[in-house]
Automatic annotation (TrEMBL):
Coiled coil: none annotated. PROSITE patterns: GLYCOSYL_HYDROL_F1_1, GLYCOSYL_HYDROL_F1_2. The keyword Secreted does not apply. The active site is at 371 (nucleophile). It catalyses: Hydrolysis of terminal, non-reducing beta-D-glucosyl residues with release of beta-D-glucose. Belongs to the glycosyl hydrolase 1 family. This is Beta-glucosidase.
Amino acid sequence: MTALDARPDTTTTLRFPTGFRWGTATAAYQIEGAAAEDGRTPSIWDTFSRTPGKVRNGDTGDIAADHYHRMREDVALMRRLGVTDYRFSIAWPRVQPTGRGPAVQKGLDFYRRLVDELRDAGIRPVATLYHWDLPQELEDAGGWPQRETAQRFGEYAGIMAQALGDRVATWTTLNEPWCAAFLGYGNGVHAPGRTSPAASLRAAHHFNLAHGWAAQVLRTELPSAAEISLTLNLHAVRAHTDSPDDLDAARRIDAVGNRIFLDPVFRGRLPEDLVRDTAQVTDWSFVLDGDLEVAASPIDSLGINYYSPTVVAAGSSESPSPWAGAEQHVRFLPAPGPRTAMDWPVDADGLHELLIRLRDDLPGVPLVITENGAAYDDYADPSGEVHDPERVAYLHAHLSAVHRAIGEGADVRGYFLWSLLDNFEWAYGYSKRFGIVHVDFATQRRTFKDSAHWYAEVIARGGLT
C-alpha cells in the first residue's frame, strides 16, 4: 500500500485524504442464505443456530438476506451509494464443503460472479477468507483448538487465491479471531458453543498460525501488488480508576483481548504477562518451534473493527467467561452515555484512542477501519421510508474521530461501514438491525435508510459537514 496523498483539509468540511477508501461490509453467513444449495454443507453456525436456545427466536441463516440469489441487486445498491470498496467474506463450506480436498466449482463460480459484478460497477472487491463459518466436519474433528484446522485453512487460502487472484487485489485472512476463539470456545455464546478456557487459548494460537500460513500462501499465489491483511476487533480498554488494582485489570484484558494477537503477528512473540496470567489454564505447550515466526509473516495493513469501549475494574466476572485467565481478577462496568439497540455504549473517543495507540505501537503499519456501525430499532413508516437519525449521529461521530486521528498522524487508509444490509445478527438472529439498507425479511424488499442517503453524500463529498 502507498501512503495517502495528504492530511485531511479542515478548512470547510472534514475532508479525508485523496485516495481514502469508502466502503461497506458484510459476512457470508449473515446475508447469503442458500444454505444447502450448489454443494454447500453445514458450517458450525448452521449447527449452532439449529440448537434449541442458542439463537434468539430459533432464527437461522438458511435464507438470511437471500444475497446468494439477489447479489446483482445488492451490488446495484452499492453502486447507488457510490462506495469505492466492498468487503465480503467467502463461505468456506460453500467452496470446500468438508474443509479438505478439491473445491466445488459452483461455489467458486458464485464468488467469481460477485467479483466480476463489483468490478463492472467500479467497486473494488475486498475478500475475507474467514468470518466464522468453519465447515462442521472440521469442528467434528476438533475445530480450532486442533492444529490441523490451521493447516486446512492454509490449503483453503490457496484454493481461493488460485480462483480469484486475478480479480481480487485485497485479501483479509481472518475476521475477529478473538470472537471466534473466546466467544466460540470460551463462554459458548457463539458457534460452536464450547465452554473451555483452555480450548479458547489453543484456538487463539491456531488462529494466529492459520493467519500466518494463509498469508504465506497468498504471498506465493497472488500477484506482487496484492494486499494481505488481518482484521482484529481490538478492545479500547479503560481502567475504571487509576488504582493499581484497576490498572492491572485493564492490563489483563489488554493481554488476552489485544496483545494475544498483536504480539505474535507483529512481534513474533507471546506476551509474557499473558503466559503468566493463564498459567493455571494452560502451559502453552501447543506453541511449537517456528509457530511464532509463521504468525509474524508480513502483511500490508491491519483492519480494525470497533463498536464501543471496554471499562474494567478489579473484581471477578460471571462464569463461563470468555476472558481466559482474567475471570477472577476483572469485572466489567458500563460505560456512560447513550446506548445502541445492542445495549452497547456510544463512544467515538474509543476509536480515536485505538488509532492513536496503533500509530504509536505499530509505526509504518497502514490501518483500515473494516467495521464500524450501530444497531437501532429501525422500521419502515407508512410511507415506506426508514428514518434512523441515531445511526447517522453515530456514524458522524465515529468518522469525525477517524478524521481527527488522521490529522494526528494515524495512517488510516479507509472506512468500511457495517453493514450494507440488515442481516442475521449471530446469536441475536434477526432481532437486531445494523444495515444502512433496510431488509423486510418476509419479502426481501430492500429500502435505503436515511443513513444510506447520508453516507452516499459523505462519499460524494469526500468528507463530513
